[in-house]
Specification:
Length: 188
């Protein structure tokens, strides 16, 4: 796919659309190689990825369910069939990838956060170019201390989200965006 076409066709594909098939490790490694070439000030390469699949992925999803139920109990709400369905769809993912940033102190944190986001975009575009899909989520307790410990992150690292990757048999509908001119200010 040509670069511009790839950029315009990339879409979020959600776990409910995944078919449960596994993305080959070689395809993931190719996408991680693309991620590794994201722009990074002072070449700190702050991105970190923790890849869950199989039983480890299912244990992670079980952890999400425990946290979600505890949060509901704290609000005196009950677990619903819709919540059960949501989490069962997540098990259709090929992989769940924790996106983390390793802050070096060499540059402002925002620069390393942005570099990590650029790495995720490179990863996502490479996966899409290979015919695989994903969804970047910041839910499921990603920012909590308990998940920080669950992932084994260091004190100078922060989780920025989950990337749920998978395959789908569904057609991917086109997206709708506002006109680019709405986001531009030209100053000559």
């Amino acid at each position: 796919m040509e670069t511009q076409e790839l950029l315009l066709k990339r879409r979020s594909v959600y776990p409910r659309q995944f078919n449960g098939q596994t993305i080959p490790k070689e395809a993931l490694l190719q996408a991680f190689e693309a991620a590794n070439w994201a722009p990074t000030h002072k070449r700190t390469q702050p991105w970190r990825f923790i890849i869950y699949s199989g039983d480890a992925m299912n244990l992670l999803i079980d952890q999400w369910i425990l946290m979600a139920k505890a949060n509901l109990e704290a609000k005196r709400e009950t677990w619903s069939e819709a919540a059960e369905t949501k989490y069962s769809y997540m098990r259709n993912s090929s992989h769940v990838i924790v996106i983390a940033c390793h802050y070096t102190g060499l540059v402002p944190e925002i620069e390393e956060t942005c570099a990590t986001a650029a790495a995720v975009q490179n990863f996502w575009l490479s996966l899409h170019d290979q015919g695989y899909y994903g969804y970047w989520s910041t839910g499921n307790g990603i920012f909590t201390e308990s998940m920080h410990q669950y992932f084994g992150l260091q004190e100078n690292e922060k989780a920025l989200g989950y990337f749920l990757a998978g395959q789908t048999n569904d057609p991917i509908p086109p997206s709708i965006r506002k006109a680019v001119e709405e986001n531009l200010t030209w100053r000559d």
